[in-house]
Amino acid sequence: MIFAEQITKDEWPKMLVIDARDTAIFVKWHIPGAINMDWRQVLAKRNMISKNKPVLIYCNTGSLSAQAGFALRLAGWGNVRILQGGMAEW
Question: Please, what are the domains in the chain?
Fold first, then answer.
């Protein structure tokens, strides 16, 4: 878990930011530069997620993105962080 304010201005462009919410919600509001990948599809689409680049996953509150991040960590991704509080804190 990481708070948005812990991520420096220089780190943001280096990260793959994944919005793990439903596409309809993503279209309405998301972090600039984020890609949309429903939390239930993260493992199925893991070939799109680099193991060599920092990855930040978020949802509305952090609970669904935490599940997606946990699944990725179990699958071998050690570079995943969860945005604490999700969009509610963004």
Answer: 4-89 (3.40.250.10)
